[in-house]
Amino acid sequence: MEKILDIAEAIANEKGLQPEKVLEALKTAFVQTAKRVINPNFAFEAQVDEINKKIKIIQTITVVADDDEKLQDEETAPAYMAISDARSYDDQVELGDQLQEEHDLEDYGRTAASQLHREIEYHIQRMVEDEVFSKYKSKVGTIVNGRVTRVDSNNATYIEVDEIRAVLPMKSRIKGEVFKVGDVLKAVVRRVNMDKENGIQIELSRTSPKFLEALLELEVPEIEDGSVVIEKSARIPGERAKIAIYSTHPQVDAVGATVGVKGVRINSVSEELIGENIDCIEYTNIPELFISRAMSPAIISHVEIQQDEEGKNVKAVVTLPSDQKSKAIGKSGINIRLASMLCGMDIELVENDSMTPENAAVEQEEEKDGVDALEALFN
C-alpha cells in the first residue's frame, strides 16, 4: 500500500478530478475493504500518513459500562469494549473514551488486495460520473453540438456530445427533420438523469422554447451581453414562434437589434428551425398592452382582463374590429394559440361592428366606385 498518495494524484490528473476528492474516495474504498475482509461491524476510520504517503486503517472501539446492552448484541459488540476490559490495558480509561487499533490490509493477503482494487475502481468511477452529471446538469437550457451516431427503430437520434452520448427523442425533433449517422446538429439540453442501471442519461430537444432562446443568444450579441432580455417565448415548432423582449439600455432597440439589418439575424435563427417564422414583440408589464401586442398582426380595440378568486389573471377578453378576427386567429388558430401561450392566459375574441380606418376607407372607396359605375351605366 506504499505511495498511495502518489496514486491518488495520478488518478486525479488522468481523470481531470480534484486531488482532494480522489483522496476522500480512496479513504472510503479503504474503509469499505476493511469492513468486508476484517469485520463489517467494526467502526473503521481511514487516516492519511503524509510522511509515508500511506492510508492507515484505524479501528475505533468505544468504552462502555460492563452491563451496557451494546455488548450483548452480536452486531454492535465488536465496536465496543467493557470498561473493565479496557482498564486492563490502561487504568486511566473512562466511559465514552475511544480506543484505536491499527490494521494493515496487506496482512489479509490477495483477498484484501483484489477487494481494495474493486472498491477503488468503483468509487473513482462514481466520482467521474458525478462530475459529468454535475457538468451537464449545469448545462440544462443551453445549446450543445454533437454528431449523430445512431438512429433507432423509434426514430430516437443518439448524439455524441464530448465524452458522453445524448438522445434526441422523436417528440423533440422539429416536424420534417430527418437525421442520419454523421450529421452534426445543435440542440438544447432538456433533462439530465442518472440511475444505477443506465448511468447518465441526457435528453436533448429542438422543439423547446429554450432552444429558440439559446439560438437567439448565439446570434444576437445584445442578448448575450444583457442589453436585450428575452422575457418570454412560445413556439409551435417548425411553424411559428413569438418572443417577448425588452431593452435594458436606452439606446438599444430590442426588436431592431434582434431582427438585425434586413432581418439577417432573425432569418439565420429561422433557417436553423426549418423556416419557423419568429415574431418579435416588445415586452411590457402592463398585461392589457402586452396582450394587444401579442395578438399582432391583428389590430386590437380593447382588452379586458378577468381574474379568479385569488386575483390571478386567467382570461383576456379581446375586442377587435370584425375585419381583424381572421388575423387574430391566424392559420389553423396558430396566432391566438401562441398569444395565449405567451401571455399565460386564455384569450376570448369579441367582434364589434366597426372596421379599422384603413379597411373602412378602402370599403368606402369601393362603394363610391360602385355607385359611379351604376350612374355611368344608366346615364
TrEMBL record:
<dbReference type="GO" id="GO:0005829">
    <property type="term" value="C:cytosol"/>
</dbReference>
<keyword id="KW-0963">Cytoplasm</keyword>
<dbReference type="GO" id="GO:0006353">
    <property type="term" value="P:DNA-templated transcription termination"/>
</dbReference>
<keyword id="KW-0804">Transcription</keyword>
<dbReference type="InterPro" id="IPR010213">
    <property type="entry name" value="TF_NusA"/>
</dbReference>
<keyword id="KW-0694">RNA-binding</keyword>
<feature type="domain" description="S1 motif">
    <location>
        <begin position="141"/>
        <end position="207"/>
    </location>
</feature>
<dbReference type="GO" id="GO:0031564">
    <property type="term" value="P:transcription antitermination"/>
</dbReference>
<dbReference type="InterPro" id="IPR058582">
    <property type="entry name" value="KH_NusA_2nd"/>
</dbReference>
<dbReference type="InterPro" id="IPR013735">
    <property type="entry name" value="TF_NusA_N"/>
</dbReference>
<dbReference type="Pfam" id="PF08529">
    <property type="entry name" value="NusA_N"/>
</dbReference>
<protein>
    <recommendedName>
        <fullName>Transcription termination/antitermination protein NusA</fullName>
    </recommendedName>
</protein>
<dbReference type="InterPro" id="IPR036555">
    <property type="entry name" value="NusA_N_sf"/>
</dbReference>
<comment type="similarity">
    <text>Belongs to the NusA family.</text>
</comment>
<dbReference type="InterPro" id="IPR015946">
    <property type="entry name" value="KH_dom-like_a/b"/>
</dbReference>
<dbReference type="GO" id="GO:0003700">
    <property type="term" value="F:DNA-binding transcription factor activity"/>
</dbReference>
<dbReference type="InterPro" id="IPR009019">
    <property type="entry name" value="KH_sf_prok-type"/>
</dbReference>
<dbReference type="Pfam" id="PF13184">
    <property type="entry name" value="KH_NusA_1st"/>
</dbReference>
<keyword id="KW-0806">Transcription termination</keyword>
<dbReference type="Pfam" id="PF26594">
    <property type="entry name" value="KH_NusA_2nd"/>
</dbReference>
<dbReference type="InterPro" id="IPR012340">
    <property type="entry name" value="NA-bd_OB-fold"/>
</dbReference>
<dbReference type="InterPro" id="IPR003029">
    <property type="entry name" value="S1_domain"/>
</dbReference>
<dbReference type="InterPro" id="IPR030842">
    <property type="entry name" value="TF_NusA_bacterial"/>
</dbReference>
<keyword id="KW-0805">Transcription regulation</keyword>
<comment type="function">
    <text>Participates in both transcription termination and antitermination.</text>
</comment>
<dbReference type="GO" id="GO:0003723">
    <property type="term" value="F:RNA binding"/>
</dbReference>
<keyword id="KW-0889">Transcription antitermination</keyword>
<comment type="subunit">
    <text>Monomer. Binds directly to the core enzyme of the DNA-dependent RNA polymerase and to nascent RNA.</text>
</comment>
<dbReference type="InterPro" id="IPR025249">
    <property type="entry name" value="TF_NusA_KH_1st"/>
</dbReference>
